[in-house]
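Form P-L/3: holo structure prediction, ligand heme C.
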Amino acid sequence: MGKKLLMLTGILLSLFVGFQLIPVSRENPPVTLEVRWDSPQTRELAKRACFDCHSNETVWPWYAYIAPVSFGISNHVMEGREKLNFSEWDKTNCDFREVEETITEGEMPLWNYLLMHPEANLTATEKEQLLSGLRATFQQDPPRIP
Ligand code: HEC
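OUTPUT (holo model):
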């Protein structure tokens, strides 16, 4: 190996090790009030496709412990919960219109999440079931809008 390459490898390696020392939040705070689901099936679909970023029941994968990937994952979960958190229905959450938009436009779940979570890749039928289930859920238990 050339000297320059060796030095570059050394720099990258120490950066990588240094990254691991930066604290990352991987908290699952207590569920304060879960939304009143219209049916267990809706919850099941939401659990498969949305819970990791929109509930306090996040399943943190092994790569969520390796920086810098962990920074991105932690951010997504924190930002996702901020907008919509099925586990904190006593706090403010977005309205159904936004949910409908993200699902019909295929924005949610995030595409990079789907790469590692094939079970979250809902079929067209499942998406429709989730959407109508969430519509009913939001109707019977409306969120507090910010
Ligand atoms: C990998 C994490 C992740 C998953 C899984 C995920 N979301 Fe999100 N979601 C986010 C993030 C991050 C934001 C906030 C940033 C943004 O607005 O793009 C967000 C924002 C939202 C919003 C607010 C609207 C908006 O555009 O800001 C809605 C509604 C939403 N998600 C619905 C869902 C639904 C429904 C599912 C399941 C089908 C889902 N999300 C799955 C990460 C995720």
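COMMENT: The chain has a mean pLDDT of 96.
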